[in-house]
Amino acid sequence: MPAAGLSIAVQETCPFRGRMTFLVRMAFLVPVIAMALVLGGCGSKPSIRTHGPGVDEPYVVNGKKYYPLFSAEGYEEEGMASWYGPGFHGRRTSSGEEYDQNAMTAAHTILPFQSEIEVTNLRNGRSVVVRINDRGPFARSRIIDLSRAAAMRLDMIGTGTTRVRLRHVGSRPAVSAPVPRQPVEGIFYIQVGAFGDRGNAAAAVRKARRMGMQAAIQPGKRLLKVMLGPWQDLNTANDNLWRVRESFPQAFVVSEED
Asked: Does 193 share its domain with 242?
C-alpha cells in the first residue's frame, strides 16, 4: 500500500498535515479506482453484434462475397467439418463473444448467429447440437468449424475433419432487440449447380422451371452454371432459396457482381 506508507512518513513531522495528505490522496484514488473497475467490466463483457457485415449484411473474405441468411429454418447441408481450439481460445468471435473451446459452439459462413444446429458425424453416427457464434471456415472443402468440445463428442479430434450432416433445430433468443429487416438492393440469383455436361445442366433448368422459377445456363470457364432469377433484393432471393433447396440442396445465393 504505497499511498498509506507516504502518509505515515509525513505524520512523523506533522500528524495533522499527514492526515490531510492521506485523505486528499484517498479522495483522488477512489474515483480513479471506481472508473477502472467500470471500464474493466465493460471490456470483459462486450455486447453481442446484431447488425452489420457478417451478421445480416454481406461480407467479403479472400475476394469472395458471403450473404448471411436471415433465417436458418429448414436448413440442411452435408459436407466436411473441421475444428478449431487452443490457438483461438479467448479471442473474439465474429459475433462479439469470446471464443471458448470448451463450449458447444461452431463457425459457419452464412448461418445466423444463435442458430442451433445438429451436427451428425456420418462416419460413426454420433450427433451434437452446437450454437453458431462465429464466421468460417473459408476453405472450399469445409462447411463448418466446430469447437474442440464438439469435435471431441463427435470423435473427430484425431482425424481433424469428418463428413457431417447439418440440420437446423432451433435458435436462442436474441441478446438484444432484433434490427428490422432492411432490403439489400442489387441483382441476385440462386445458383443450383455447376455441370460439366450440358445435358445435365439442361435437366436442371427443366426441373427448376417446373417449380415456376426462371432458369438459364450461364457458361463458365470450365463448367456450365444453372442460375435462377434474377431478384432485385437479397431478402427476396433468400426467401426463394428455401423452396429451391427442396429440389437442389446445395443451392446458394450469388450477386450479379460475383
From this structure: yes
Residues 15 and 68 in one domain: no
Give the containing element (helix H, strand E) for 254. strand 252-255
The total number of structural domains in the chain stands at 3
CATH code for the domain of 117: 2.40.40.10
Residue 80, classified by CB atoms within 10 Å of its CB into exposed (0-12), middle (13-18) or buried (19+), is middle
- 75 and 147 housed in the same domain: yes
Task: Find the radius of gyration of the CA atoms of the chain.
Answer: 27
Cα separation, 253 vs 15, whole angstroms: 78
* Per-residue confidence (pLDDT) for residue 47, from 0 to 100: 58
Threshold 0.85, pTM exceeds: no
Tell me the pairing of strands 161-171 and 115-121. Answer: antiparallel
114 assigned to some structural domain? yes
- What is the CA 45 to chain-centroid distance, rounded? 18
Domain assignment of residue 49, yes or no: no
Closest by Cα among 147, 68, 62, 74 to 107:
147
Pick out the chain residues at pLDDT < 70. 1-49, 172-184, 257-258
Domain assignment of residue 100, yes or no = yes
Distance CA 97, CA 147 (A): 14
